[in-house]
Every structure is written in C-alpha cells, then in structure tokens.
Amino acid sequence: METLRALREHIGDCHRCPLGDTRNSVVFGTGREDAHVMFVGEAPGRNEDLRGEPFVGAAGRLLDELLASVDMSRSDVYIANIVKCRPPGNRDPRSVEIDTCTPFLREQVRLVSPRVIVTLGNFATRFVLGTTAAITGLRGIVHRRGHRVVLPIFHPAAALYDRTKRDVLFADIALLPGLIAGGTVHGPGAALYAGDDATGGGLFL
C-alpha cells in the first residue's frame, strides 16, 4: 500500500477472522500520518467499536492526560491497535485474530514511519517486541528495534482503578520527549536500552 487511506480501503468491511461477524466497526487507527510517535494498543472496546475510533472511552481520556503531561495531544501522534475489531465481551484477542490482523499494523508502522512506538499493555508489547514476558517486567525500559525505539507502558485501562499503575504510567511517559529528540534519556528506567536489535523477533522481522 502507498497510503494509509489505501490500506484502509484494502481492509474494507473485514471478515478475514471471526471478529468480523460480531463487531460493529473496523477501528483502523487515527492521528497524524507522519507522526514521530505511534501508540499501539490491544483491541477496541465497546466505545471504540461504536464510534470507529481507538481510545475514545475512559482509557482514552487517561491517554489524553498522559499526552498532555508531556505537552502533546492526539494531533501529534498516531494511534492504532494490534486487532482492529472488538473481541466479544472485551475478552483477550486470540492468536488467530492477532495473526490475521497484525499484517495491517505492520503496514501502518511502515507508512507512518514513527521514531518511537509506545506499546500499551501485554498484547501490544509482546507482539512488537516478539516476547512472552509480562508488561510488569518490561514497562519503562527502552528497547531498540532497528532504527525505531520502543517504550512499553501499562495499558491505560489497567490504571483506571489502580493509583499505583497511574503514577507509574506518568513516570514512564515522561521518557517520551527525550526519545523523540533522540538524545540521552533521563529518569527511572531510562538507562536501559534493552537491546539494539535490528533483526530480532517481533514487529520488525
């Protein structure tokens, strides 16, 4: 595909996996098409399924707060999910659904070409980094994949009712301006490039 619009048209009214039979909307992605930062979440929820946009419910409002804390807004970033249709009852996405849908995410990353990918929660982080490790051990640690940087953080939904995760989210997102600038990153966990891996597993194979 040459453009995000062409990719969206190619996806169409998708029924490539069983989620196409239960969702209302294909939630493709939204934001600045040449963004330096791309946020990757798990899957649409109820509000996203109804509106056709990612992160428009309570977790989305927290994401807005996180962006504002580093003097950014949605207009500065691109937001997508590894699965573009809502799993019934907001259950975890299944392997066949992830395998079917993530080629579209790969294309979104290629077309947007962000400097930094912020992964939100377990599923996005495991896919992008090609790992089975849990987000609790990966969050706030900066990873390099090829010429991109990956910053795993908790999913905002996990922090809605857990103040400790909320505080950690704001601490982790504070690393973002330094990563965008490409300079030295300061702060808890920023040390810590967990690998300079142009060929390792995950999104960038």
Q: Helix and strand succession? A: HEEHHEHEHHEEHHE
Poorly predicted runs are 183-200
Query: Would you state the CATH class?
Result: Alpha Beta
Strand content: 5-15%
User: What about the largest sheet?
Assistant: 7 strands, mixed
The CATH architecture is: 3-Layer(aba) Sandwich
Kindly report how far apart the N and C termini lie.
18 Å
Mean of residue pLDDT? 90
Describe this structure in words.
The chain has a single domain (4-196), classed as Uracil-DNA Glycosylase, subunit E (3-Layer(aba) Sandwich). Strands 1-3-2-4-6-5-7 form a 7-stranded mixed sheet, with helices on both faces. Mean pLDDT is 90; it is low at 183-200. The protein has helices at 4-11, 46-51, 58-69, 95-112, 121-129, 135-138, 163-173, 176-181, and strands at residues 30-31, 37-41, 78-81, 116-120, 143-145, 148-153, 196-197. The chain is globular and about 40 Å long. It is α/β, with parallel strands linked by helices.
